[in-house]
Design goal:
The protein has 368 residues and is of the alpha/beta class. The protein contains twelve helices and 14 strands.
Length: 368
């Protein structure tokens, strides 16, 4: 799928000395041939048949960057063909395909899979997870992470408007916030146990599925998370974080000036004072220079996925394949994120609080 993100990833892969591009599959031969020519690749690499691509024994890994509706069937076919798999999120837009992918992953633990929840590699998110992991915030009680973003539907991206191609708004982008919530609580030793959600139709652009979501997630240690999600947003990019624990708190506000975007406090640090780690002058004036962060630290303050750690994601996947080590974002390891997404859809459809793990039989009936 050499569209926008596929082309970006292909260009990055071509810069590596440990990767060989064996074939490129797309439904648009003319556009793919032009891209191959631009990249100085042999146009014979174009493969019109995905199945024939899977039958090439020299191919070790399939890299999926196709439209969402193709992810599930193509991922299933790749694992059945014995190929390692890198897949843009979502890995499936139907619950039945999701269950099949869980089963295939468990049956083939030697196959490395990777779902590109790219915010996992963002330096600020890594710092936040480490703060939680080391107990600086204590036991987590309340967490809010938003994902409100006017996703691009221009030109070739207009497929995102259609439910049968895009799937749902959570898997289209709101799962970035759900993934961050899941990792933060996992760093605190808590796992999701229930979800309650409501949804609303788009107000600005003609999205077929509901574009506005309000998701409450309950966790095993008593913590609760909330997510405002909206892919029909008309006011920039909102990835607000507010993480509160028994010993401290952390706030990230993407719309603030750089020096004010992040603040945190901990009873174990600086006598519990609030610290603005990106305001180096203020840190110095208050004798808190030890807690300052480099102003160049990458933050999740842009809706452009290229700013979120794509190079690290690619490195992680390829290293996992080379070392036969399960990736942290494998289909199984990222299952909590997808289960929250499916539970939110069930909750919105039924008006009920949905317990996790899901009752697969009941879920299939409603999500079919």
């Amino acid at each position: 799928g050499p569209g926008w993100i596929g082309e970006v990833q292909l260009r990055k892969l071509l810069k590596r000395s440990d990767v060989w591009i064996a074939a490129v599959h797309s439904s648009n031969q003319e556009r793919t041939s032009a891209l191959l020519h631009d990249l100085e690749l042999d146009e014979s690499l174009y493969q019109p048949s995905y199945q024939r691509m899977l039958e090439q024994p020299e191919i070790k890994s399939i890299w999926l960057a196709s439209p969402n509706a193709l992810h599930g069937p193509q991922a299933i076919a790749a694992l059945r063909a014995g190929k390692h798999l890198f897949c843009e999120k979502p890995v499936a837009i139907t619950y039945r395909d999701q269950l099949t992918l869980y089963e295939l992953s468990r049956q083939n633990p030697h196959l490395i899979s990777f779902v590109d929840y790219v915010l996992y590699f963002n330096p600020m998110e890594q710092k936040l997870m480490e703060m939680v992991r080391t107990g600086l915030l204590g036991e987590l009680t309340q967490v809010q992470v938003n994902y409100r973003h006017p996703i691009n539907i221009s030109d070739r991206r207009a497929w995102k408007l259609h439910k049968d191609v895009m799937g749902d708004a959570i898997s289209m982008g709101i799962n970035h916030a759900v993934s961050v919530i899941t990792w933060i609580f996992a760093a605190n030793g808590q796992h999701p146990i229930a979800v309650y959600a409501t949804s609303e139709k788009a107000r600005i652009r003609p999205f077929e599925p509901d574009a506005i979501w309000n998701i409450t997630i309950h966790f095993s240690g008593g913590g609760t998370a909330f997510c405002f999600g909206n892919i029909d947003f008309n006011n920039g990019y909102d990835a607000y974080h507010n993480v509160t624990g028994t010993k401290g708190a952390f706030v990230f506000d993407a719309v603030q000036p750089l020096s004010n975007k992040v603040r945190y406090s901990s009873q174990d640090l600086a006598r519990g004072q609030w610290i603005w780690p990106l305001d180096t002058e203020q840190c110095a004036a208050r004798g808190l220079s030890a807690f300052a962060w480099p102003p160049t630290l990458t933050l999740p303050d842009s809706g452009n996925v290229l700013d979120h750690g794509l190079d690290d994601a690619i490195d992680c996947y390829i290293e996992s394949v080379k070392t036969s080590t399960s990736s942290p974002l494998s289909i199984i390891h990222s299952a909590a994120i997808t289960e929250i997404s499916w539970a939110a859809q069930l909750s919105a459809a039924t008006g009920k609080r949905i317990s996790l793990p899901l009752d697969t039989e009941s879920a299939l009936k409603i999500l079919a």
